[in-house]
Amino acid sequence: METALIVEDSPTQRGILTGYLQELGINVVIANSGEEALVKIAATQPDLIVLDVVLPGRSGFEICRDLKNQEKTKKIPIIICSTKDSEMDKFWGLKQGANAYLAKPIDQEEFVRTVKQLING
Q1: Which single residue of 35, 80, 91, 105 has CA 20 to 30 Å from 10?
Q2: How far is the C-alpha of 12 from the C-alpha of 66, rounded, in Å?
Q3: Residue 48, beta-bridge partner list
């Protein structure tokens, strides 16, 4: 069974994303901040990371860039989900190494399709 790490500080968004992933049969691990995410990634080696941009401490952009620059984590697919949805935000997120950038509110069909593409790749 695949494992996804959701890095999201909003309990409502966390709940929505968790539900979508669990419907796909994916095990979910939660982190509320970038720092907590790094600890959980080291412990669980997730198959997928769903990452918010606006987080306490370090931004999702920074976390994404760091993960994509490390040998142990660079192949883990990352979906950035953010309310920051300008073309520049999307460009910047993908430039940091994200595999996909989805704007909130998340469209369930688009999210599920993206997750399936990245996990089954």
Answers
A1: 91
A2: 27
A3: 4
